[in-house]
């Protein structure tokens, strides 16, 4: 086993978020494919995948940004064993069930949950910017509410007061002259 595979198995067995890259040469390894299948079959699984094609210019530009996710995501997402970040070669995609429909363009970023029953393409996501940068990927993942425990962070009294002051200020400021 390579050092990369050992890291992935460690992360998987320690109940941390799983980050996995599956290239065409790894596609013949049944352990990697089984890991992806078992993650996708979990009832509360939330999988974010980048489907790429070797030699594709836009794919080569997107993959480095995608791989930054494992270092940038917050601990509430990283500690969630139901979250999987996956970069997978298009030649391997047919070995994994529940990835329908077939991608029509590359790169394709998808959010898959509930054994593949719910699928959302990144391009169809309800986020402000879709420029394929690390910031937009993090915004997309956070929009799916993937914190560990599944609960939203409760607002503190201080946050509520700040919000009220902001609203009050906005409603009483003078209109700008144009």
Description of the molecule:
This protein is of the alpha/beta class and 178 residues long. It has helices at residues 3-13, 30-40, 57-67, 69-72, 75-78, 134-143, 157-172; strands at residues 18-22, 46-52, 83-89, 108-113, 118-121. A hairpin with a 4-residue loop joins strand 4 and strand 5.
- Average pLDDT, rounded to a whole number, is 75
Tell me the count of domains.
1
Reported by name, the CATH topology is Glutaredoxin
Low-pLDDT regions: 1-15, 148-155
By DSSP, the count of extended strands is: 5
What are the main properties of this structure?
alpha/beta, Glutaredoxin, disordered N terminus
Topology:
Blueprint: H1 3-13, E1 18-22, H2 30-40, E2 46-52, H3 57-67, H4 69-72, H5 75-78, E3 83-89, E4 108-113, E5 118-121, H6 134-143, H7 157-172
Parallel strand pairs: 1-3, 2-3
Antiparallel strand pairs: 2-4, 4-5
Kindly summarize this structure in a few lines.
The protein is an alpha/beta fold and 178 residues long.
